[in-house]
Amino acid sequence: MGTMLERFLVLPEPKFKKLLRSSPESVDDCDSQREAYRYAMSDSFVMQSQLDCTDSPLPGTRVFDIKARAAVPIRLDILNYEVCRTNRVPLYIRLSGYLIKRLTGGLESFEKEYYDLVCSAFLKYIFQARIGNVGGVLVAYHNTARIFGFQYIPLEEVEAHLYDPGDGSRLFNKCLRLLECILEEVVGVYDQQSVRCTFDKRDHVDEMVVFVEPANWVEETEGKPCPMTQLEAKVENHLNDAPSRGSMAVASDQPWLIHWAISHSAADGEDIRSSLTQSQSRQLNALHFPAGVRTLSEMVAYWDNIHFGGPISKPSTGDLSSSSSNANASEDKTEGDEWRTLNRCLAFRTASPQIEYLRRLAREGHDATMRAEAEEASSGKGKVVWGPADFLRDVVDDDQNRQLVRDVSESTVDGGEVGGVSVSVKESCDSAAGVGDGSRAKCSLDGSSHGH
User: Fold this and answer.
1) Domain range holding 53?
2) Whether residue 97 is found in the same domain as residue 140
């Protein structure tokens, strides 16, 4: 969904419609425009980062990434993505009705979404940004029905939340060097064969386990089960030659040394595979039954009819159906259990009280949206839709005030044309130069016409 939303933001409407599942396929619809990338090198890696957008008024590299950030209920309850209707009457409201209503607060707020970004996705953002040498990320907050707003987050702000007062580049280099050491050991396990790796970092244990197995092993040809090796990586952090916690090392500007050790487990193949199964079960994120689904047999029928606006697919014939028959046979025995499994890659659980509360907020948000649309329709006031800007002029006057002037040729109000509009944003050069450092520029908005 994130990839499609990024396309939605940067492509003209005719081109974007060709990407929809409901549009007919055509060999002429292929986009011949090349994607833009930047590359970074280390001792052993060549790293690639796709570039999304550029904007000349931005400081630094003037390149930024677009990140689509789904609201909290979409992330926690992903199967409730729309309104289920029967004969055009809403049967139950799913999470497309959830709203972001305020700046601060525990839920329905930008503060909640930003806090979750800091706790989860910021670390991924910062590593991607360093590989691509971009200046920041433009985050689009959304549910499955609307976009609530955009926020440009400079690289410095991301690092301040993660490392302050540490140095993000030092941590990136340390992590990259450690990964090189681990993968150098991995590629030597099976004599330069292609391998499949599973990384597992257990909580509260200063050790990372790597399970390595040949990727192209065929038991019938080889005459024996696929082998597996377990590597165990341990590190110790030292500041000024004294042992230190990792969090202290990140925040310090003193000389930082990492002592690492990578060892091969002496356990036999069955024990290693059992450990891998346990690691995969910990990493498996169970999905909640969507609203209106109470049993595993109903979930199987629901799963087979997911079509996302395209033609309804035929019932699956792979692992899902074969395991669903076993699930139906044992459903009476597992009806009271919290977890249900369709296959080894999918697990489901009944909705928790937290999820039920988020669904209630979505129903209330949907009702509020319907009331607002009805009031707007009865008032007779039309929506103001601004057209694209013709160009953006960057002017600095005699007082060293920087002025960005955007001339809009036309806009539409209920299908009618409105005269040309000139909107200018004035800000001091000093403030604009400090935006990348987390300071807030003072701006004034002047315009000959205003829209809501």
Assistant:
1) 37-164
2) yes
